[in-house]
Amino acid sequence: MKRDTSPHAAGRPAASRGIVQGLVYVFEQVMPDPFVLSICLTFFVAVLAMLIAPSGTLPTLLDSWYTGTFGILGFALQMILILATGYAIAEAPIVQRGLRALASHANSPTRAALLVFPVVAVAAWLNWGLGLIVGALLSREIARRVDVDFAWLVAGSYSAWSICNSGLSSSIALSQASHGNALNLVEKATGHVVPLSETIFAPFVFIPTVLVVVVMTAIFIKMHPKAENVVAFRQSGEAAADAPSDDPHARASSETSLAARLEQSMLGTLLLLALGIGYLAITWHKEGFDLDINNTILIFLMIGLALQRTPIAYANSIRRAARQTGSMLLQYPMYGGIMGIMKGTGLASMIAKAFVTIASPVTLPLWSYLSSLIITLLVPSAGGHWAVQGPFVLPAALSLHASVPRTAMGVAMAENVSNMLQPFWAVPIVAIAGIRIQRVMGYTAVTFAVSLVIYAVALWLVP
């Protein structure tokens, strides 16, 4: 096909591609491996805390770092299990056929973006873990069939996922709507919960959420690299094989042995399904329907078992998932230590208070949003972030008679934005997709800039 060399071909889209390729180059040259980056951030936060934090003494800093590092391990395992169980679901034959059927509709970069953004955004809005898994594996299926730049496609999936903190799995919105929740700071201060109708279903939240998806779809279509700059999935050389042929756990003994029959029997699957379904049925009957992290893991586990059918098939799938999520074992403790330093030394509270002191009833949600952008880059976990920032912005909202839901969701919406520069949550999606993170973050920097403006305007102007 002859390339268009007319004057009209050198317009704004080409210029935008040049800017994006420049960003990709910068990230590839400057951004180290995420683990190394987390070490650099730890050092930066430690020095900053020692210099300006109200309790930045060396003993406090070391104790806070140690407490945070090991205090996050339970949460880290929960996150890894969400991704591993989600991976096992997505790897089931029936789901793979569904992903292939979806991917077959994408026969060009434009159609790929038009497919990936709404599918991943809906999945992420329903559950952030599901969105990560669907985004990574759908990207791989599309990239096998279409000549697209793989980093561009994975970055589009991650950008679509970014709206998750405005959805049904938003830990900030859910905790403020849940009676007795440990992080329901609104109920502790006022005796009332904040229903979801005032947070994730409020116009100031769902309008910018939809806008981000629509606008970024259009921008990503324009950002696709020129043909000579495309690095396809097959050329990246980093994608892991789907199913290893040399499985070290493969059984060498006869398939008719007792052990082999147990592995291939569905009785083990049925037993675990009975236990899980029974627990959820009794709990939801007594306490009403509720989804938390542990329930989500259990549901993902049961769905994966049912789709994989036999215990050995499920175990093999989880082993393959573990190879993709292994890098998270290092990431979570490091950021737990950073979170511990910021909270224990008072650095996070100092940042939040600095913004709160200059706020008015009208501007407090926006200042909450801006301070959250900074804190999220160092504490990339919505629940842990709210535990740090919430105790300062919430009393300010009550004393200034500012909107409590808007102030709280300002924190959550900033999480969506900052995640596009903070590689913490990108680690699992790029690991599963099989690509270096630096090329992906070059594209998501554009998502950061665009969504930063969209959410800020919504907080300011949308009722």
How would you describe this structure in keywords?
463 residues; mainly alpha
Helix amount: over 70%
Q: Output the helix-strand order.
A: HHHHHHHHHHHHHHHHHHHHHHH
What shape does the CA trace take?
globular
Our count of domains comes out at 1
Summed over residues and divided by their number, the pLDDT gives a mean of 84
Low-confidence stretches are: 1-14, 235-249
Count of individual helical segments: 23
Give the tally of β-strands. 0
Estimated radius of gyration: 23 Å
Percent strand equals under 5%
- What gap, in angstroms, lies between the N and C termini? 50 Å
What's a concise summary of this model?
This protein has 463 residues and is mainly α. 73% of the residues lie in helices and 0% in strands.
Would you write up a description of this structure?
By secondary structure, the protein is mostly helical. The protein has one domain (13-240, 257-461). It contains 23 helices and no strands. It has helices spanning 12-30, 34-52, 58-71, 73-91, 93-103, 109-126, 128-145, 150-161, 171-177, 185-190, 203-223, 233-236, 258-264, 267-287, 293-308, 311-325, 328-344, 347-356, 364-378, 382-400, 404-418, 426-433, 437-461. Helix 2 packs parallel to helix 17 (328-344), helix 7 runs antiparallel to helix 8 (150-161) and helix 19 (364-378) runs parallel beside helix 21. The N and C termini lie far apart (50 Å). Mean pLDDT is 84; it is low at 1-14 and 235-249.
